[in-house]
Amino acid sequence: MARVLITGSSDGLGLMAAKLLVSQGHKVTLHARNTERAHDAAHALPEAEGVVVGDLSSIADTRQVAEQANERGRYDAVIHNAGVGFREPYRLTTEGLVHIFAINVVAPYLLTALIDRPDRLVYLSSAMHRGGEPDLFDLGWTQREWNPSQAYSDSKLCDVALAFAVARRWPEVLSNALTPGWVPTRMGGPGAPDDIRLAPVTQAWLAVSDDESAQVTGRYFYHQQETETHPAARSYTFQDGLLERCAQLTGARIPDERG
Q1: DSSP string covering the chain, please?
Q2: What pLDDT sits at residue 186?
Q3: 92, pLDDT greater than 90
Q4: Could you read off the pLDDT of 34-91 as tens digits, one per residue?
């Protein structure tokens, strides 16, 4: 039995993964962005250990989510599921970050830095990350015309790079990324072609499975199979640059603990 925290799990793929893990006998803590959604999440999965609450577009709220998680005790795995999609309008958070970058990249970075270190970390990305641009110099989109699809792809490239960077820096932690496929969720839209039944399987498998193929680190998966990723995701220069920019934005660092 494992204890697993799943961000963005009041509905959608996060809640589906939570239900799958609970059905396998694991203990799950959900996350919701506000108290109303927390109530809905608890109602949807009453077997959950509890719900942590906070808006991950806010650095301050994300810090509170980490504090709530740590108060509940160390987790065996954290699944960084929360995210917003490729139809996002241009908008800034209260702290002046582009909303899509704040939720998709800064939040999982900060939670990784602040939550008591688990044995496994799982980051949800997208096949669209292959269209991402490894450019860390215009994260605020002040030099370019807003392109929500490109912003989403960029953020998902960052998620894979974050997973791989953590795998390098924390050798004792299994840190991997995945795409759940383009599935008909609220984010994916009703016309998405992939099988929704398979969408939560890989993240749950990476979080808890004793299968040898799941006990790896620094890999990118689709339906439990390692698959091709954007070459920049494996660039140490890009990885370290991303960590440094996120550290500057949040004031929290992910230490390098290689021997």
Answers
A1: --EEEESS-SSHHHHHHHHHHHHTT-EEEEEESSHHHHHHHHHH-TTSSEEEE--TTSHHHHHHHHHHHHHT---SEEEE-----TTPPP-B-TTS-BHHHIIIIIHHHHHHHHSPP-SEEEEE--GGGGG-----S-TT-SSS---HHHHHHHHHHHHHHHHHHHHHH-TTSEEEEEE--S-SSTTT-TT--S-GGGTTHHHHHHHH---GGGS-SS-EEETTEE----GGGG-HHHHHHHHHHHHHHHS--------
A2: 61
A3: yes
A4: 999 999 999 999 999 999 999 999 999 999 999 999 999 999 999 999 999 988 899 9
Residue 134 tokens read as 């490894």
Mean pLDDT, the chain, rounded, equals 94
Catalytic residues: 152, 156
